[in-house]
Design goal:
The protein is of the alpha+beta class and 197 residues long. Helices cover 44% and strands 24% of the residues. It has seven helices and seven strands; from the N terminus they run E-H-H-H-E-E-E-H-E-H-E-E-H-H.
């Protein structure tokens, strides 16, 4: 089952997703060859950036991610977008759906979305054009103006965020409820041959 939801910057699935990208996908996402160490540093710094993350999950596997980093230029705020989709999950509409979620987020804040991409990346321009955006192939930049917020855009973002907070709440409940039970559980007998004596 596929689900789209907001993610916390410290979600370990993000690092797993980036590390699983092919070298070519890493080059496209990070605009150059990127080592495991550099990806780990990038993920460690995510919590310090003002950004919104939406992931596409298949069960527990993160197969697509869009990051909207808030930025300001000439007194106008916009969202700089980075996006990745697992190679084995391409051509299923995941990139288009992630951009749709990003547009809801942008609409609710009056933000334009700006996509920088490598000139040989044909997917980003196609997705942006499909959503009615503008592509400057010479500058290798694409942009989507923020649509007006609607009840649907506000509701959809609230559902994305509710899933994030629900997942965090469930994890807290597990820790609070299971930790005391595990601490007081009787020790299991050692089934090893040396324990049998």
């Amino acid at each position: 089952m596929v689900a789209y939801r907001s993610l916390a910057a410290d979600d370990p699935k993000i690092l797993e997703h980036f590390l699983a990208l092919t070298p070519e996908d890493r080059r496209c996402r990070f605009h150059g060859a990127t080592s495991d160490e550099r990806i780990a540093q990038y993920c460690a710094g995510m919590a310090g950036r003002e950004a919104h993350l939406v992931g596409c999950l298949e069960g527990e596997r993160l197969v697509g991610l869009i990051e909207i980093a808030l930025s300001e230029e000439n007194g106008r705020r916009h969202g700089e977008v980075g996006m990745s989709v697992a190679a084995d999950r391409r051509d299923r509409g995941i990139g288009h759906a992630l951009v749709a979620h990003a547009l809801d987020y942008a609409a609710n804040r009056g933000l334009a979305l700006v996509f920088g991409y490598l000139p040989d990346n044909t997917r980003i321009p196609r997705i942006v054009l499909d959503h009615g955006g503008h592509v400057d192939r010479l500058a290798a930049e694409a942009a989507l103006e923020a649509p007006a917020p609607t009840l649907f855009s506000v509701s959809l973002e609230a559902l994305d965020d509710a899933a994030l907070y629900s997942a965090k709440l469930i994890e807290l409940w597990r820790k609070a409820l299971l930790a005391p039970l595990e601490a007081t559980a009787p020790a299991k007998p050692d089934p090893s041959p040396s324990a049998a004596g």
